[in-house]
């Protein structure tokens, strides 16, 4: 068993003649929370797309729990234990909150979307969906159509859908984007709670979220990982200050 849930080894990705990811290395130890930060266009989303299998890498290797995922399709990587959030787009707006979660559980079990006729017999899926519903604090909203939830509730549901299948490695894409300060504080607490014992990699622009939640921060600038360190060391890293953080890092971690 690898000590690292996720490893990137000299990963490169080009679109046409443009090299967007330029030899990235990253080791995420099992059970740790990592944040990837960097300026707009640095390649953060591309990196997520490579890790989750949406795009193929041009060269290098990506290991999930010690095994290479190169060449695998997103659902195959998902079945190996990696789940990625998609910023609300994976919510079915006409289904209720509970149905969305049950759907996500069934998807992870391999029922895809042809499961409807078997639903009642699937006690495990029901219990798992109920457990996630409780974890994300939306029990009272269980019968509400997801499209009628508030924005913050939809983002919580999105996190619920991401963790519903029981994946060990969770990728969250800007989980607090568009939230007020108090909503984002609540989201941080939710993420902290649902990722206990799991490995988290998140892309996030809000530095108080990043510094409050991450064990380690990886800084990506123009496709190169210029630093990966604890929040305190990242705050004090002159190279990072110059390339990205400037005066934007919070004075003290918000944890
Ligand atoms: N499918 C694609 N084809 C061609 N170029 C792409 C593709 N996807 C991303 N890029 C380019 O890769 C670069 C990095 O984009 P990416 O979205 O990964 O950056 P980012 O760090 O996530 O930015 P932001 O913080 O603004 O979301 C950009 O120049 C973008 O235009």
From TrEMBL:
<dbReference type="InterPro" id="IPR051120">
    <property type="entry name" value="ABC_AA/LPS_Transport"/>
</dbReference>
<dbReference type="Pfam" id="PF12399">
    <property type="entry name" value="BCA_ABC_TP_C"/>
</dbReference>
<feature type="domain" description="ABC transporter">
    <location>
        <begin position="6"/>
        <end position="247"/>
    </location>
</feature>
<protein>
    <recommendedName>
        <fullName>ABC transporter domain-containing protein</fullName>
    </recommendedName>
</protein>
<dbReference type="InterPro" id="IPR027417">
    <property type="entry name" value="P-loop_NTPase"/>
</dbReference>
<dbReference type="InterPro" id="IPR003593">
    <property type="entry name" value="AAA+_ATPase"/>
</dbReference>
<keyword id="KW-0067">ATP-binding</keyword>
<keyword id="KW-0813">Transport</keyword>
<dbReference type="InterPro" id="IPR003439">
    <property type="entry name" value="ABC_transporter-like_ATP-bd"/>
</dbReference>
<dbReference type="InterPro" id="IPR032823">
    <property type="entry name" value="BCA_ABC_TP_C"/>
</dbReference>
<keyword id="KW-1003">Cell membrane</keyword>
<dbReference type="Pfam" id="PF00005">
    <property type="entry name" value="ABC_tran"/>
</dbReference>
<keyword id="KW-0547">Nucleotide-binding</keyword>
<keyword id="KW-0472">Membrane</keyword>
């Amino acid at each position: 068993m690898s000590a690292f849930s996720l490893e990137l080894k000299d990963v490169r990705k080009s679109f046409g003649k443009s090299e967007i990811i330029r030899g990235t290395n990253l080791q995420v130890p099992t059970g740790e929370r990592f944040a990837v930060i960097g300026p707009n266009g640095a390649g953060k989303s591309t990196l997520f797309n490579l890790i989750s299998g949406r795009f193929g890498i041009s060269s290098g290797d990506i290991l999930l729990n010690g095994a290479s995922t190169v060449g695998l399709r997103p659902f195959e990587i998902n079945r190996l234990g990696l789940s990625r959030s998609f910023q609300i787009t994976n919510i079915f707006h006409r289904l209720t909150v509970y149905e969305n979660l049950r759907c996500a559980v069934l998807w992870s079990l391999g029922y895809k979307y042809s499961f409807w006729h078997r639903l009642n017999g699937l006690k495990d899926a029901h219990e798992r969906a109920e457990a996630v519903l409780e974890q994300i604090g939306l029990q009272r909203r269980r019968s509400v159509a997801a499209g009628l939830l508030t924005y913050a509730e939809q983002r919580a549901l999105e996190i619920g859908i991401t963790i519903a299948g029981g994946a060990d490695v969770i990728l969250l894409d800007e989980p607090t984007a568009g939230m007020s300060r108090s909503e984002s504080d609540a989201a941080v607490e939710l993420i902290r709670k649902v990722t206990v014992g799991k490995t988290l990699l998140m892309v996030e622009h809000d530095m108080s979220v990043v510094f409050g939640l991450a064990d380690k921060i990886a800084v990506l600038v123009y496709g190169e990982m210029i630093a990966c360190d604890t929040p305190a060391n990242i705050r004090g890293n002159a190279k990072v200050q110059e390339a990205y953080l400037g005066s934007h890092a919070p004075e003290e971690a918000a944890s």
